[in-house]
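Possible race condition, two jobs.
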Amino acid sequence: MKLFRKRDFITIGFILLFSAAAITLFYTILKPTETLPIYQPAEVNEKLVDTSIIHVSKYHKISDFKLINQNGEEITQEFYKNKIYVADFFFTTCQDICPIMTKNMYRLQEELKEDNDVLFLSHTVIPEIDTVQQLKKYAVDNNIDESRWNLVTGDKKQIYELARKSYLAVEDAEFGEYDMIHTENFMLIDKKRQIRGFYDGTDNLEINRLLSDIEILKKID
């Protein structure tokens, strides 16, 4: 005597399939959407923020800029329009954290080389030394993809203000006007020119976190 008829198996299969779909849908609804904070000057270490904006708690964005890259080309915010990008501050003759930061930015470049929505921007903090020629040599020595990664120099005051009023990334130095003490920070900037994350550019685990956050940002930006 048959315990189950063919149509019973079909019914059971349908119930199991429906149950699996229902569980998946239920889990999707309950699972919180991953997101990233939008950083404001008031939330960042005050040593890295210009005193004129230290109390700003909303609407902070990266300011317009006009700098010169390693090929002598003028680079403005238009180059990064509707793009996600990673920014940092460095100088070419730095022998401590800069080589590690550059190595890790290169890692980002290579791991994201098929992703045209993500770009890179490195600002020198010593523009009087880091000329176009110096930056070009540094770019060649470090295998930089110049279509996606700009090393920029220019007016020292503008770089200083970008660092401390826009990217909230460097410390003020007391030994000269507009002198800066750069940090190991990488900043993740969204398509609206907002800061979405700070990362230790010398730490491999932090680079992993940055890569993960880029994927999150691509879904929500």
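Job #2 (started ~2 s after job #1):
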Amino acid sequence: MLVDATVVVTGASSGIGAACAEAFAAVGARLVICARRSDRLRDLAERLPTEVHPVALDVRDRAAVDAAFAALPTQWRDVDVLVNNAGLAAGLAPLQDGDPDDWDVTIDTNVKGLLYVTRAVVPAMVARGAGHVVNVGSIAGREAYPGGAVYCATKAAVDRITRALRMDLLGTGVRVSTVDPGLVETEFSVVRFAGDRDRADAVYRGMTPLTADDVAEAVVWVADRPAHVQVAEVVLLPTDQASATRVARR
């Protein structure tokens, strides 16, 4: 079903986004890959066994998002699947000690960026009567934890946006899904701790986390259901994790 489908993946330069690009390419999809780091996009495009259109893009910049999708070559404009993956967490301080600059980066990327890209892509899906939006959420959108007030709030917003968008698109033929993973070992914690790799590694110490490939496999499975099947949500946890805060460590 995904052979020759046009798939847009945001945040594709590393982690879950890069893994999603690889997984969709493996089943024959064509890819528009978006991220800020153009050098990594080029490297990814060169190794993917499919047609690829890389777009250097910061999803926080609304004008840039609008311009990027308006400028897509004709053969790339009919997007079949949008994977809203771009996201991050900056800082893990208690709210009263938090850095408002970190809040802005997190909110602008995780919430506003997702909205901007969705607004740029979905109208054409509605016009064609087909398409699929897959948002990459988080267990953090379903539960809160100390130091995670802003990040958890942004992922809770993704959950509510997903649910409301599904209602807004009812009857159009466009499907809306979310894949919400628990602990996944990627660059996520390195970014959160401003490059402190020792602190980032400690997040996964003593347990077996998910891999980016695990999440990508779920995303592709969701997107590959028959047109009459809409997988509303998938929650994907490591066996060593029972909730946002309950993790078995050895």
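Residues 109 and 197 are 22 Å apart (CA to CA).
Logs attached separately.
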